[in-house]
Amino acid sequence: MIKYLGSKRRMLGSILEAVASVPRAGTVIDLFSGTSRVGHALKAAGYRVRANDHNSYAQALARCYVEADREELLRDVERLVAELNRLPGEPGWFTQTFCVASRYFQPRNGARVDAIRQSIAARGLPPRLEAVLLVSLMEAADRVDSTTGVQMAYLKSWAPRSHRELELRVPALLPRASAGAGEAHGLDALQAAERLEGDVAYIDPPYNQHSYLRNYHVWESLVRWDQPEVYGVARKRVDCRERISDFNVRGRFAAAMERLLDAARAPVLIVSASDESWLTGEQLAALLARRRQVTVLEYEQRRYVGAQIGIYNPRGEKVGQAGRLRNRERLFVAVP
Hints:
Layout: H1 12-20, E1 27-30, H2 37-44, E2 48-52, H3 56-67, H4 70-85, H5 93-100, H6 107-122, H7 127-142, E3 183-185, H8 189-195, E4 200-203, H9 212-215, H10 217-224, E5 230-231, E6 236-237, H11 250-263, E7 268-274, H12 281-289, E8 293-302, H13 305-309, E9 311-312, E10 318-320, E11 326-335
Helix pairs in contact: 3-7, 3-10, 4-7, 5-6, 6-7, 8-11
């Protein structure tokens, strides 16, 4: 899966244990699905997952890893990945924007992205099959990028991995879960909380001012393929200035979280939050404790990749050292 700020890869075992502790749980709602790493693990464990994220690239990831079933699509995906890997490069908007006007990818790999993405768009594929191919392309590009792991900036000098040749691979599709077919939604989180029903709701919201849209705007443009107007050295989409979530605004975060927790249509809530969140652990526990009994599990983790390598400006120049290298991740398990 793609490199991702806030990935719960190291906490998957703990999250699965928390869900497994809920008697007779079959359906899990994931209201901020991101890369769908958690949803993928839940599906593998047999749960029916109803994933949601308002960003288009995240919905594509959920369609691939939660909604698409291996037995239905694998043969077509293998054939199409082989066909797309044979396409020669054809420079276009992606190459100009992210390889010439900026330096996220080597131009030859950008030209391959252009050619493959245009071919996918021209085929008129069913949504699930298209999503799997888009994820294959996204992950292929992620393996040859030249960033620190987020797309707020690119490196001043080419990363060693950027010299590799872009190659599509078949994503790790799973068979349909024993509890039922998964779903991928692209709703605002509060709308999803109001509409989607399950036995457990897993809630992992953003916790600071850095929106995932701005951090992964290249993937948003790759998936939407709308060739938007861009701005700045980082060539962000102009809608990065307009699509601002309440969860990325300090003064709105607490009220947004309270509304979400109240609206969630699941008896059991599992909330993930680090000690870098705008709400302290005590504040979040108090919100949950109004209606539920709360257990808090804590884990020490390394911080995101940027904290390990330092702070870079939009030109990819190192301008400072990050602070602490570890934080504490918490799982709040709230039951009736």
